[in-house]
Amino acid sequence: GEFREVCCRSRFYSQSWPSCKYLQFPAFFFLASSDPTVYFREDFADQDGWTSRWVQSEHAGKEFGKLEISSGEFFHDEVKDAGLKTTENARFYGVSAALSTPVESTEGKTLVVQFSIKHEQKIDCGGGYLKLFPSSLEPKDLHGDAPYNIMFGPDICGPSARRVHVIFNYRGKNLLLKKEIRCKDDELTHLYTLIVRADNTYEVRIDNKKEQSGKLEEDWDFLEPKEIADPDAKQPENWDDNPFLDDPEATKPEDWEQPETIPDPDAKMPEDWDEDMDGEWEPPVIDNPDFKGEWRPKQIDNTNYQGEWEPEMIANPNYFEDEQLYIQKDIKYVGIDIWQVKAGSIFDNILITDDEDFARNLAKETFEASAAGEKEKKDAKDEDERKKREDERKAREAAEAEAEADDEQEDDIEDDESAFAEDAEVESSLNDAEAKAEEIKDEL
């Protein structure tokens, strides 16, 4: 009874218990997931019912794209695989939904954010992430600068910038993950999972497999450094930080001093040069090949070198320890707040819970089952398209070959006609010559 209540309530369903898809899970699932708290779950299974739960932003100055329910061009199950699809190119998308159970505090708990997305449009620039918002959000005024608690998911911009964002808002600052996690960029559905644990560790999973993990304090700049350089420290006047010095025994060679330029020895005064009129003639100057530049003594190691001076490190007055970095407070909304150059992404299977086993098992029962079938349909679609392209290529080549054959036949006909005309002309010429010869005979 408790599981039935949690399931139906968390999915925003007004349906009766027998129609809930939760019943499809095997018995071991109920045993493995002991009383999970499901803050939010959405799979868009009721088709257009999503419009009653999600609020479209009307923020001034933004041209928002239209979202619709779609399973895409290839899928495992058209109903179960339906999700929220972006449909218009070069648009912002801004929608949000209230959590069925708002997060007051995750103290002592794990927080799991999980969802799937399919970029079947071969996305080249656009976001595919979710944001978790506090209660201060005005859903109809959702926009890119609206404060959020967590931003998580893939973001693609060009061939090199294809990363998974994990951004935490901490004391008013948005902190980016210092490690790189490359996102998936093919046309299939992929599942993204963020786990934040009460021991201040985290894990990012893609397609239910670990991609990155670590400690919050190490992989984000949550805290100030424990020590800083003393801002009042000054380098001692007698500190020797020169690793080399002039060799005191070095002497400048006697022939070192040479002018940088010299008169051109091959130049000759023009024959028409008139010194009375033109003044005294001077040859042009050229670079002196013997010029060596400024003389400097050889450098030798400085035996008194003390190294580069560094100020003394002192305790950072702004440093404080925070053993509760993992805690998230006041999460009331989940939202899609993105920009896409090329639309066609499908969001689905959104889950926010406190139980990572629940999320992992749910992924096996939903995403993994659908992913295998989806790939089969995608492969079949690709094969059909390949055959279609091959048939079109063969038809095109056959048409070109037929056209070429027709051209060759026309050329042969023209050649025959030309040859006949030439023969006629030759025969006519012979006849004319014979007639002329007869005339000459008659005259003689």
Give the helices and strands, then pairings.
Layout: H1 2-10, H2 27-32, E1 38-42, E2 54-56, E3 67-70, E4 83-86, E5 91-105, E6 111-119, E7 125-127, E8 130-133, E9 150-157, E10 161-170, E11 173-176, E12 189-196, E13 201-206, E14 209-215, H3 216-219, E15 227-229, E16 244-246, E17 261-263, H4 275-278, E18 285-287, E19 299-301, E20 313-315, E21 329-340, E22 345-353, H5 356-443
Antiparallel strand pairs: 1-22, 2-5, 3-4, 4-22, 5-21, 6-12, 6-22, 7-9, 8-9, 8-21, 9-10, 10-11, 12-13, 13-14, 15-20, 16-19, 17-18
Polypeptide structure, described:
It is a single chain. Mean pLDDT is 87; it is low at 1-33. Helices cover 25% and strands 29% of the residues. Strands 1, 3, 4, 6, 12, 13, 14 and 22 form an 8-stranded antiparallel β-sheet that branches. Strands 2, 5, 7, 8, 9, 10, 11 and 21 form an 8-stranded antiparallel β-sheet that branches. The radius of gyration is 41 Å and the shape is flat. It is α+β, with helices and mostly antiparallel strands and 444 residues long. The chain has 5 helices and 22 strands.
Quick structural overview:
With 444 residues, this protein is α+β, with helices and mostly antiparallel strands.
Report the span from N to C terminus: 137 Å
Percent in helix: 25-40%
Please state the average pLDDT score.
Answer: 87
**Main sheet, how many strands, which sense, barrel?**
8 strands, antiparallel
Unreliable spans are: 1-33
What structural class results from the helix and strand content?
alpha+beta
**Tally of DSSP helical segments:** 5
State which percent range the strand residues make up: 25-35%
Rg result: 41 Å
What string gives the helices and strands in order? HHEEEEEEEEEEEEEEHEEEHEEEEEH
Basic shape: flat
Q: How many β-strand stretches?
A: 22
* Oligomeric state of the chains present here: single chain
